[in-house]
Amino acid sequence: MRKPAGDDKRLAERSPLGARTGFLDGIWAAVATPFQANGALDLKGLERNTQVYSQTLGLDGIFCNGLMGEGWALSLDERKASLEATLSGRPGHLRVGVVTSHQSLSETLDLSRHAARTGADHLVLMRPGGLFSDEDLYRYVRAVRDAAGIPIILFDSEAQSGGYPLTVLRRLAEDGQIRGVKCTRDWDAINEVRAVCGHAIAVTDPYESHWLGNLMRFDLRALYADPEPYLFQLQGCRYIHGYYHAYERNDLQTAMDHYRALEPLRSIYERWILSPLRSGRPMNAALKHWCERMGLAAGPVRAPLQPLAADEARMLDQDLTDAFDAVFRSASISKNDEGMAWKS
């Protein structure tokens, strides 16, 4: 059985790969960037969404301007404006990270300094595009750390950015240059990074479907997720929170019950979000359609991405209706002041 919270020394002895830093503890989500019908940033919608993430869904943190947020489609000024609106809309307890990677190091430094000035809690860095030695990658991250002076989380994705070599991750972690790694590789690769760096930094697995296993095996209290926490939960019916807090109470049967309840939504998420990602295809149009069904500001995707075709939108709508009816049974939740909407 799991040791009570607070006994960190004995916990570390029991599970050395799950050493806790507390820095990323809680439920986080990668958020979409809403646009107006004409393609302009929807800053008011972004502020409203931020309030929903915190006040309605009770998330501990979000991170913006990444792949889910179409960060590649935003100008430097838009990326700064998006972060400023996010920070403006958040209640005091919501933590905010921001992807500051850009094509050139000078622009990455500009975005990183801006994030530090405006009050972001940490930066997220992808591996820079290009051919670099391990030493080059180390210098790249260190330059950003020296310029911004706030914590850095590395986004380690072999499929999307090539990822960071283990030797570089170990050196950065042990030198105190980074505070965590979001590793989107497979289960074995994530555990390999944890084995190498987990004693020094938070090594997070972004897949919600893995979290209960990570809690029980490693006491990994951070779900540094993609969009699952706001796609799978509604006001008053938050199963991810449910199994997390049941785990904290050592009520493992309730934790399993809440975890299993989400299987119909995980199946839809796999079909419309994860499968395209794994095959290198965009999923932003499906993500935004799903967000709109939840009552969140979303709007269109930006070119060269295309919206869902009419038949695709109908298929996704039917999948979502069936999944939400299965998960929430007879619940009928209509739009309210917090901005969440669902009609079963």
Keywords:
eight-stranded parallel β-sheet; alpha/beta; 8 strands; 14 helices; 344 residues
State the helical fraction: 40-55%
* Helix and strand run: HEHEHEHEHEHEHEHEHHHHHH
Weakly predicted, low-confidence segments: 1-21, 330-340
Physical arrangement of strands within the biggest beta sheet = 7-6-5-4-3-2-1-8
Strand element count: 8
Strand content: 5-15%
Q: In the CATH hierarchy, what is the architecture at level 2?
A: Alpha-Beta Barrel
End-to-end gap: 39 Å
Shape: globular
* Largest beta-sheet characterization: 8 strands, parallel
Using only C-alpha atoms, the radius of gyration works out to 19 Å
When the domains are counted, the total is 1
The helix-and-strand class reads: alpha/beta
> What is the third-level CATH name, the topology?
TIM Barrel
Number of helices: 14
Instruction: Kindly report the name of the CATH homologous superfamily.
Output: Aldolase class I
CATH class: Alpha Beta
Question: Taking all residues together, what is the mean pLDDT?
Answer: 89
Protein name: 4-hydroxy-tetrahydrodipicolinate synthase 2
Keywords: Lyase
Family: Belongs to the DapA family.
GO molecular function, one term: 4-hydroxy-tetrahydrodipicolinate synthase activity
